[in-house]
Design a protein that fits this description.
The complex is a heterodimer.
Chain A (H helix, E strand, L loop, with lengths): L1 E6 L17 E6 L5 E5 L9 H11 L4 E4 L4 H9 L3 E4 L5 H9 L20
Parallel strand pairs in A: 1-4, 4-5
Antiparallel strand pairs in A: 1-2, 2-3
Chain B lengths: L1 E5 L7 H11 L3 E5 L7 H5 L2 E15 L9 H5 L5 E4 L2 E4 L9 H5 L5 E16 L2 E8 L7 H14 L4 E4 L6 H7 L4 E6 L3 H16 L4 E8 L6 H9 L3 E6 L2 H8 L4 H4 L1 H24 L2
Parallel strand pairs in B: 1-8, 1-9, 2-7, 2-8, 9-10, 10-11
Antiparallel strand pairs in B: 3-6, 4-5, 6-7
The chains are: A alpha/beta, B alpha/beta.
């Protein structure tokens, strides 16, 4: 099973990024082979619709599960349509969250926010 | 002469200033560009209203023609399209109606359909021609409505035009002041007021617009942080409106102060003279 998680850095001790759409990287972890990979999130630089573009990248990487602290409604629309399951991360490191998920200790992500669009300068 | 009235937040007095300046002029256009919550019409109560729908073009996909090449997904800089489970999804609220996806689709699988997002209204209130833009609830951007408002009103009237801006300094305000000849910034006498004033101050400087400040809700003999801000930055203070509960009562009844109370007639008359003088001076010095 392939698990994706938005992260701040490209090392095994990295923290989870508080934003999904604008996270600098995603860690992709394969629970079967126990191999991991980091991918750049090109959506982070987007003028708008970062969540949609980031979600498209997650879908294209054939991920089964997304672990994230939060997720906007547009991104969630893409993720759910693709049949990817959403779980809510805790304050621990990215790898600790993956282990929590494997142990069945992460809750499903229930609250989907309406987005933080166009809030700058208002 | 297009004069825009701005402030960094709502409730500062943009509508009060714009409505009263338009009402005191011999003849003027008042354009309410605060399309999310237009309220200038409540004061003017315009007659003979003519209304016109405003629509944007949204791409619609024909799934039987779409090959899944993703040309459109990669093209859209606003990421309004996604390709999931071998199907294209369009996010209407993110789409900026540029038409690029439809233009570049190699399979001609996309076409555009009109989607109404609001309307513009024109009416008359004695010497004032009143325009209002109305954005439908739930729509993401009022910019197409403002573009329509400004283009139809420009064709209509070469004289004095008071533009009541939306609050803040975001894209929608930039669209509103784009063709303004002069900007009036309205400020409250608080630290929060200074913060909000600074937002629009930076915006009008960025756009190289001539501008001045009206200090609203002033308390005589009390410190006014917005006034200190203006003095420190060398900003032109066009006028001061003293906090007045009678003015509040008039406003709450949706009456126009210059049509009700003589001292406001005098004050707004001299404010208009001052603004026109400043704006014309700017037009000569910085054409």
């Amino acid at each position: 099973m392939k698990v994706a998680i938005p992260v701040d850095g490209q090392d095994m001790n990295t923290t989870v990024c508080i934003s999904f759409g604008r996270a600098p990287f995603f860690m992709i972890y394969d629970t079967d082979s126990k191999e991991h990979d980091f991918i750049n999130n090109s959506a982070a630089e987007s003028q708008g619709g970062a969540g949609i573009k980031a979600a498209q990248a997650i879908v294209d990487n054939k991920v089964d599960v997304l672990l994230t602290p939060r997720c906007g409604e547009n991104a969630a629309g893409v993720i759910k349509t693709a049949g990817i399951k959403l779980y809510k991360t805790g304050p621990q490191s990215a790898m600790d969250n993956i282990n929590l998920f494997i142990a069945g200790d992460l809750p499903p992500l229930s609250e989907i926010h309406a987005g933080f669009h166009n809030r700058r300068g208002r | 002469m297009n004069i825009a009235v701005l402030s960094g937040k709502g409730g500062t007095g943009k509508t009060l200033i714009a409505v009263n300046l338009a009402a005191i002029a011999d003849s003027a256009l008042y354009i309410d560009c605060d399309v999310e919550e237009p309220n200038g019409h409540l004061f003017f109560k315009p007659q003979d209203i003519r209304s016109e729908e405003v629509a944007v073009e949204i791409p619609v996909v024909d799934d039987t023609l779409c090959s899944g090449c993703r040309t459109c997904v990669d093209f859209c800089r606003f990421n309004a399209l996604a390709y999931i489970n071998k199907r294209l999804t369009v996010f209407e609220n993110i789409c900026h109606s540029c038409g690029g996806c439809t233009l570049f689709c190699p399979e001609n699988a996309l076409h555009e359909e009109k989607k109404n997002i609001g309307s513009v209204e024109k009416g008359f209130s004695s010497s004032v021609t009143v325009y209002s833009g109305i954005l439908n609830t739930g729509e993401a951007s009022g910019i197409p409505i403002i573009k329509r408002l400004l283009s139809i009103s420009r064709a209509d009237h070469p004289g004095l035009c008071l533009i009541d801006c939306p609050p803040g300094s975001a894209c929608i305000v930039m669209e509103t002041i784009r063709d303004a000849d002069y900007c009036i910034l309205v400020a409250e006498p608080t630290l929060f007021g200074v913060h909000n004033l600074n937002l629009v101050y930076e915006l009008v400087r960025l756009f190289n617009k001539p501008f001045g400040v009206v200090l609203n809700k002033c308390f005589e003999g009390e410190e006014n942080p917005s006034e200190q801000f203006c003095l420190a930055k060398g900003i032109n203070i066009l006028g001061r409106l003293v906090f007045d509960s009678e003015l509040g009562v008039i406003n709450s009844k949706a009456l126009i102060a210059v049509r009700e109370i003589n001292r406001y007639k005098v004050q707004f008359s001299s404010l208009l003279t001052r603004v026109l003088k400043e704006a014309q001076y700017e037009a000569v010095v910085n054409p």
